[in-house]
Design a protein that fits this description.
membrane, transmembrane, single chain, transmembrane helix
Length: about 55
């Protein structure tokens, strides 16, 4: 498998995971907004930690 083919598959998987996350986040805001906000803050903190790690 070439690098371009692998990159396209990984990009497609990332798009599907992002869409899934956004759909679940939208559903959770409808049912339990407090929990959704907490999970969103937790995800932001984890993302910030991964970006800032050396």
């Amino acid at each position: 498998m070439t690098d371009d083919a692998l990159r396209k598959r990984l990009d497609a998987a990332l798009v599907l995971l992002t869409a899934n996350f956004l759909l679940l986040l939208g559903l959770s805001f409808q049912s339990t907004p407090e929990t959704a906000i907490g999970l969103l803050v937790l995800a932001a903190l984890l993302g910030y930690g991964f970006v800032r790690q050396k």
